[in-house]
Amino acid sequence: MPSQYQPHQRFTEADRDKIAGRLRDAFADGRLDQPEFSSRLDQLYAVQTYGELEPLVRDLPPVRTYQTPAVVQNTTPAPAPGDFPERQPKNKRGNGLVALGGGFGGIVLLNVVIWFVIGIGNGGHWPNFWPVWLLIPWAFIVLGQLGKRR
Questions:
Q1: For residue 27, which of 37, 39, 18 has the smallest C-alpha distance?
Q2: DSSP 8-class letter at 80
Q3: pLDDT tens by residue, 10-23
Q4: Residue 24 and residue 31: Cα distance in Å, rounded?
Q5: DSSP state at residue 88
Q6: pLDDT per residue over 78-121, tens digit each?
Q7: Three-class HEC string of 3-30
Q8: Alpha carbon distances (Å) from 5 to 45, 51, 80
């Protein structure tokens, strides 16, 4: 029992519940058999002072307390108030036209390749350059992105 209490002092119901929990844990761990657990539990509800309570748990291991998981123990602490961590630069994909246009640039490129394959398949008779209808909005997207700072 905690040393701050005197053996003749009465304990509270919260203390009784804590001791009952320790007895239940000891029973669940196999440290107490059924008759001994029942006997100690009956004694627990009959006693009134800390001095009478201590023999009920004297031979049991101390209470298990919460342990911080190892994953949390190895992390760096939070910065002090007012200190801001250094911001890491974002991973940029590059400054090419495809990167500026986003996924739409890939679609335009695919259509230009299809147009080229059709021209080769027709024996060099190139059809009208129909991917231009995709290039026009893509050009507006690229021009709009060029002025922005990243």
A1: 37
A2: P
A3: 888 988 998 998 99
A4: 10
A5: P
A6: 778 888 777 777 665 555 544 555 677 778 788 889 989 998 88
A7: CCCCCCCECCHHHHHHHHHHHHHHHHHC
A8: 19, 9, 39
